[in-house]
Amino acid sequence: MNNNNNNCSYFALLYEDSDATFTLTMPAPSSVVKQLWETTLDHNFNTLNVASVFRHSGLHLIVGCEDGTIRIYNLPLQQTKNSIKKFAFCLQLKSQLDSKGGPIQMMAVHDVTRFSSNDLLVADSHGTLTVFCNEQILHRQRLSDSSINCLQVEQDASGKITIVASDGDGCLLATHPHKELWKIRLPDIMTEKSLRSKPVVTALLCVQTVAPDGKQINYILASDSYSNVHVLQQGKLVMSIPTPSRVNAMCCGRFKMSAAGDSDMGATAAGAGSKLQVALATDTGVIYIMEEFQLCETEYCAVGSPVTQLCRLSARELGNADVLLAAGHYNALAIYQDGKLKVKHQTSDWICSVIAADMDNDNHVAVVVGCYDRTISALRINI
Q1: Is 285 left (phi over 0), alpha (psi -120 to 50) or beta?
Q2: Gene3D superfamilies from the xrefs (predicted)?
Q3: 284: number of CA atoms within 13 Å, CB side?
């Protein structure tokens, strides 16, 4: 086994079952990144998640595959023996769900049916949204004639849920099972007088901010292929913000501290904090910070290649700026804090998904990384 990691050396044990080859890695000490485990699936996939879903207890690895199937795995369990923690090297397939559609492009986990457990929403390349409730297809809805490329779930202060998606034809639409709420075509809200090609949505993000009176306000951010970020509320355009280049990914957090080290600066997707900060990853490899819908003049960092994935690790409890993980057109996971590169963790291929989760319930968040070569690895990041 070849582990291209600048931070650790590994001894690997291989375990094979009918669906995955699992590698138990025992990393040498590292100051920043430790690889916990790695597995290679037999199926190509585009997206993954780590979440509690349906009536299953605990977290599970959820993989959206190109054959239209969603495969759900039990996570490797951390075991303690003689005060030494290690992971049992077994990635077991718990269930697989047939979406009856095309390659899975996007997934979201949320309790949209209010049946007391999280549901699974999947969007495919045929433009179909499928809602699974307790492993059964509850609803299938054809949203578009083209592929769904972004999917988000918005929940307002009253608990109202809206499923927001975009397609390859430049349409933004909001729906709830059995009911379409609104639909917007990008050309109808763009100020460009002449469009050289069809504009498309490149990233979606649902955010919450808090007004001075304490009221929660929800917005939807949609970036387009003409280097704009559109701010929407309930299907209406609030403003459009030009960006230096095309934005491919967005992430909420507290990435820049105030001069006084204000611990309240920045907001999360859950609306915590007083000021909304959003990291914008661009096609040029530069990441910018947008604060309260104002683009900061200085660059947060420059990765050097197009960035397509962002993930945040909270450092709020320590009073520090959040850690930002960036992946894209390069074989590495770049780890930044306060705009400074901490380390680049080498991967076997370009990364298609990055998810943060407390997998073993020890109050330490791990990062699960999925690559286009079907490799999935779990990392512990210490900053």
Answers
A1: left
A2: YVTN repeat-like/Quinoprotein amine dehydrogenase
A3: 12
98-155 pLDDT, tens digit each: 999 999 999 999 999 887 789 999 999 999 999 999 999 999 999 999 999 999 999 9
Is the Cα dihedral 152, 46, 92, 23 positive or negative?
negative
Instruction: Return the amino acid letter for 294.
Output: Q
Q: Give the number of C-alpha atoms closer than 13 A to the C-alpha of residue 70, restricted to the C-beta side.
A: 32
Q: How many CB atoms lie within 10 A of CB 272?
A: 15
Phi, psi of 171 (to 5 degrees): -105, 140
Contact between 162 and 176 under an 8 Å Cβ cutoff? The reply is: yes
By C-alpha distance, which of 175, 153, 57 is closest to 108?
Answer: 153
* Domain coordinates in residue numbering, the chain: 1-100+353-383, 103-242, 245-346
Asked if residue 376 lies in contact with residue 48, where contact means CB atoms within 8 angstroms, the answer is yes
Helix (H, G, I), strand (E, B) or coil at 169: coil
Q: Which fold has domain 103-242?
A: Methylamine Dehydrogenase; Chain H (2.130.10)
Say whether pLDDT at 224 is over 60: yes
CA 98 to CA 269: how far, in whole Å?
Answer: 30
pTM for this entry? 0.85
- Virtual CA dihedral for 299, 291, 283, 373, nearest 10 degrees? 110
Q: CA 65, CA 57: separation in Å to the nearest integer?
A: 23
